[in-house]
Amino acid sequence: xxxxxxxxxxxxGIGLVGPGLDxxxxxxxxxxxxxxxxxxxxxxxxxxxxxxAERRRTGVAIKVALAVGQEACANGQLxxxxxxxxxxxxxxxxxxxxxxxxxxxxxxxxxxxxxxxxSVHNAPAGYWGIASGAMTPATVLCxxxxxxGAGLLEAMTQVAIDRCGTLLIAYDMPYxxxxxxKRPLPAAFGIALALMPERSAHSLARIELSLVDAESAALxxxxxxxxxxxxxxxxxxxxxxxxxxxxxxxxxxxxxxPLSLAVEIELCR
Length: 269
What we know:
Distance between the termini: 30 Å
Strand content: 15-25%
Number of domains: 1
Strand order of the largest sheet: 3-2-4-5-1-6-8-7
CATH architecture: 3-Layer(aba) Sandwich
Helix content: 25-40%
CATH class: Alpha Beta
């Protein structure tokens, strides 16, 4: 994508979950600065939309991904079955990765079918299809610390080229030790954006995306800024803060150095 090219879409729904950010509705006044941020452990229930057998197999990554995706669809009053999906994560199911590594390092290297099933990076996309009934295309990607930006760029490109609604689901979760020491993600976190080619009665904003060589936006609240810097999925928080504040304008998000993503935000209501 050239730095001269701009992609546009309408943002119809938002999903959010993180430590001290239970959902988008609860997080809006926090991001707007009207309510103080208080970090607390994240608890996400297994989605009831999954059959019992699949529900028992879900780890934190899948729970977070499905929770924010379902919230974004509900807030935008959208039918998930009609939306393409882009899943982006820097690591996916890190608990499962740790468990498999421990088994492979032991004398008994037998890996359970459930562990193997959930080890692939596209497992949340499969569970999403089961939970939502969606048979639309799903793209799964990873770009290390630039995973949120890469997912947003991919989703916006699909909206622009295919002229179809696309759901971005960006999520991350921490690794157990000893992997945590090498990749210290402090908490699970997820953001979902429902992006549409045309404005609707539920549209929150029109956003326009371009590649730039500029410094990414920081958050004024120190603890939220620490989350943004530490968790790739949280790199989208400045965009959500601009929506929460009702200010619109321009924010710059992390992507792959030296490039960043400039997002021009025009509020719809």
